[in-house]
Design a protein that fits this description.
alpha+beta, Arc Repressor Mutant, subunit A, 2 domains, four-stranded antiparallel sheet, globular, DNA-binding
Length: 217
DNA sequence: ACATTAAGTGATT
DNA sequence: AATCACTTAATGT
């Protein structure tokens, strides 16, 4: 458990070197709330009002979108250590309801920043502005790539990229998920995922187990 | 031992 | 590539 302000300071230096400006760092320590989430716990759901900007300290978060018609869900991108939820920015600036769902993929710790500081810090601290802009750009790229992937790529490359993204995000080559869950993320059928994974296993790229996949390459 | 859930497979569209 | 129908394997009670 991380609660001491000295700990927060240490975390900021380690995980968020971009926003190490001393005054800013002090303010984050004062107003930031450290929060923990368990695997699968939903941090923010559709239609809820965004009131905190999360700085992700450890763990990883899945950002997804739900289809209005049949309630199917599609993965947009993952967020990892040292990042923040870029869509939160626009959402809370406009005071709009969330159009996305964010869900912890594993034990995840964040520092929550109340929205009122967002605006203030943008003009007050150069490093904050840069941090916001830089993560915004980075996630926008992920989003575009994800769109390209859905539109132009076949299931097998989409699956490989998905596995790679999860590994990159968690820093672990072991992915804990059922084929069904992966299929939901990719909006594919479970059978298709199972078959493609089997192919990857035969090609020596992964090792399959119940509820888990190990990436070998 | 039995029930439940995950994964593998062939056939059909 | 989706769906169906069914089998096999792993796991929980």
């Amino acid at each position: 458990m991380i609660t001491e302000s000295a700990d927060i300071q240490k975390i900021l230096r380690q995980k968020f070197p971009q926003i190490a400006e001393s005054g800013l760092q002090q303010e984050i320590i004062e107003v930031g709330k450290v929060m923990h989430f368990k695997p699968w716990e939903i941090i923010m759901d559709f239609d809820s009002y965004v009131k905190m900007i999360p700085l992700i300290v450890s763990g990883s978060i899945k950002v997804s979108r739900e289809d209005d018609l049949d309630g199917r869900e599609i993965l947009l991108y993952f967020l990892g250590e040292g990042e923040t939820c870029s869509l939160s920015f626009t959402c809370c600036m406009m005071n709009k309801k969330s159009i996305i769902r964010t869900q912890a993929m594993e034990e995840t710790t964040i520092i929550g920043i109340p929205i009122k500081y967002m605006d203030l810090w943008m003009s007050k601290y150069q490093s904050w502005k840069n941090f916001v802009m830089q993560t915004y750009e980075s996630k926008m790229m992920d989003l575009v790539k994800s769109l390209d992937s859905i539109a132009f790529e076949s299931m097998d490359t989409r699956l490989v990229k998905y596995l790679q993204a999860r590994v990159d995000n968690t820093g672990s080559t072991l992915i804990q998920a059922t084929h069904q869950e992966i299929a939901n993320d990719l909006n594919a059928s479970r059978e298709a995922v199972s078959r493609l994974l089997k192919k990857l296993e035969n090609a020596g790229e992964v090792e399959l187990g119940r509820n888990q996949i190990k990436l070998l390459k």
